[in-house]
Automatic annotation (TrEMBL):
InterPro entries: Ester_Hydrolysis_Enzymes (IPR051532), SGNH_hydro (IPR013830), SGNH_hydro_sf (IPR036514)
Signal peptide: none
Gene Ontology terms for molecular function: phosphatidylcholine lysophospholipase activity
Name of protein: SGNH hydrolase-type esterase domain-containing protein
UniProt-listed PANTHER family: SGNH HYDROLASE-TYPE ESTERASE DOMAIN-CONTAINING PROTEIN, THIOESTERASE 1/PROTEASE 1/LYSOPHOSPHOLIPASE L1
Residue span, SGNH hydrolase-type esterase domain: 323-513
SUPFAM superfamilies: SGNH hydrolase
């Protein structure tokens, strides 16, 4: 969501006509404070809000909405800080000893098992400041016919946004400016009730703040007392109703993930990709991931220039394996050096060379693209992926890779994280594999990695991997079956020791283990290709019968 345009549009009018400060010094200083607030908010939204990961079993969100007092006007702000009570709530929540602690086992044996399972002691809470200075209750109200911000309502901006729609606790801080502007108490109360009731219907827990005094150093006006009394009555009535029913359930949602283009557009869209797709709330993680992507792109560019574009054509003694896919195929999280392929492709080279069963030369090429989903690679007619610039065509019509004989497909992990329907992902994966097999290529299809490795698997994830396994089994009786490998859904990859700094991508140890498991399924395919080559040679040999008489 983006609230900056509203502040920029009405900032002069708001200071001059609504706040009611007569002193020029106060007005100018308030204007500067708002400009600084807007700059800090823009950075906070870019770094922290738009990068929030979806709500999970171990990660939750608190959102503060409201006016100046919710936004934190008057607070000391720094770059990247939320401002207002949201910034301080983070500290108090972290310090609290009551936030979802788990009791440790009493016996030593059970304690050891508990530690091996790496159970987290606490759950994580992100506190987001989504308040907008200068707004009143009507601007946030979801009431039909609301005359607030009309089509650009702040309520819809926040609670339909990818990052905040799954927030579970909402703090509403409105009404203070309604009093200052002289808006009738009945109207303010009606809008506040609408906001709170709509949020509760969405299964969210709501805190409603009282209104600040319009003139703190003077006696409270009657209208102010009346508004706060009305707010207290609303809260009391809601509490009585809540005691008669169970707590609302939480519906977790996966964050949307945006694809990013290949070639020179990698670097220009890296920031946008991290900010809008990966869903990591930690600033350190977001920055480190951005640097990792820049480094990956540089290493990939050198690798393509030195190793891929100079590949000789496939011959009787030289063959190619190509890895296509998303982040896990590309090797995001792996330790990369100049000229290395990254991911399982780099480790597969070693395992293939060490194998005593492989007699001919094999080149392993990493052609995966981070951020892509199955639709981006699908050759289906009418595919809405990358359209004319499909990754599939880029790879398999290129001079260097079009004659590859073995293809490893690693897609579906980001489809789960994006929440793409399983049926759609399966359809695209089948299209990719079937098209490759029609071209005479042998195919390995990987399972999907967990969208939240350290939490329980979602039902959609299990359903996708089951669909992949069923598809591979259905091709087992065919001449060129789709082999189920590598397995990204193994328990090994649900351990913290196998994950990278973002606790989503794999680290080097995990990629090596993944490649080792993939090699066990891949080497029989390589030997089959080699045997077909030898068989062709033997079939063309003609013997002179006179030599055997």
């Amino acid at each position: 969501f983006d609230c900056g345009d509203a502040v920029d549009r009405s900032i002069n009018q708001w200071i001059g006509a609504s706040m009611g400060f007569e002193n020029t010094y106060v007005a100018v200083r308030l204007w500067l404070a708002l400009v600084w607030w807007q700059l800090c908010r823009w950075i906070f939204d870019l770094v922290s809000v738009k990068t929030l990961r979806p709500t999970t079993d171990m990660f939750h969100k608190v959102v503060v909405i409201g006016d100046d007092f919710g936004a934190g006007i008057g607070d000391y702000l720094t770059f990247g800080s939320a401002g207002g009570i949201a910034e301080y709530l983070k500290t108090f929540i972290k310090r609290s000893e009551k936030v979802c602690e788990q009791q440790r086992p009493a016996t030593q044996r059970t304690m050891a098992a508990w530690q091996r399972q790496q159970h987290p002691v606490r759950q994580s809470w992100a506190v987001v400041n989504a308040a907008v200075p200068g707004t009143v209750a009507a601007d946030w109200s979801p009431l039909a016919g609301n005359k607030g911000v009309s089509a650009a309502q702040y309520f819809d901006r926040v609670f339909t946004s990818r990052s905040l729609r799954d927030a579970e606790v909402i703090v509403v801080m409105l009404g203070s400016l309604d009093q200052r502007k002289g808006i009738p108490v009945a109207e303010t109360k009606r809008h506040l009730m609408s906001i709170c009731d709509t949020l509760r219907k969405k299964g969210k827990r709501v805190c409603l703040a009282t209104a600040a005094s319009a003139a703190p150093l003077s006696k409270n006006a009657a209208s102010e007392t009346e508004l706060n009394k009305a707010i207290q009555e609303m809260a009391s009535a809601a509490s009585a109703m809540a005691m008669a029913r169970s707590a609302p359930s939480r519906a977790t949602q996966f964050a949307a993930m945006r694809s990013w283009a290949t070639g020179g557009r990698h670097l220009t869209s890296a920031t946008r990709w991290i900010g809008a797709s990966m869903g990591f709330e930690n600033t350190y993680v977001a920055v480190r991931l951005w640097l990792a992507l820049v480094w990956w792109q540089l290493c990939r560019w050198i690798f393509d220039l030195v190793s891929v574009k100079t590949l000789r054509p496939t011959t009787d003694m030289f063959h190619k394996v190509v890895v296509i896919g998303d982040d896990f195929g590309a090797g995001i999280g792996d330790y990369l050096t100049f000229g290395s392929a990254g991911g399982i492709a780099e480790y597969l080279k070693t395992f293939i060379k060490r194998s005593e069963k492989v007699r001919q030369s094999w080149a392993v090429v990493n052609a995966a693209v981070p951020g892509t989903v199955a639709a981006d690679w699908s050759p289906l007619a009418g595919n809405k992926g990358v359209s004319a610039a499909q990754y599939f065509d880029r790879v398999f019509t290129s001079r260097s890779l079009r004659d590859a004989e073995v293809i490893v497909v690693m897609l579906g992990s980001l489809d789960q994280r994006k929440g793409i329907p399983v049926a759609e992902t399966k359809r695209h994966l089948m299209s990719i594999c079937d098209t490759l097999r029609k071209k005479g290529k042998r195919v390995c299809l990987a399972t999907a990695a967990s969208a939240a490795p350290l939490s329980k698997n979602a039902a959609s994830e299990t359903e996708l991997n089951k669909a992949i396994q069923d598809y591979c089994k259905s091709t087992a009786v065919e001449d060129m079956p789709v082999v189920l490998a590598p397995r990204l859904d193994l328990p090994l990859f649900h351990r913290e020791s196998s994950l990278s700094f973002d606790q989503f991508h794999f680290n080097s140890t995990a990629y090596r283990a993944l490649a080792k498991g993939a090699a066990d399924s891949l080497i029989p395919m390589l030997t089959a290709v080699e045997w077909a080559t030898w068989k062709t040679k033997f079939d063309n040999v003609k013997y002179d019968p006179a030599l055997y008489h």
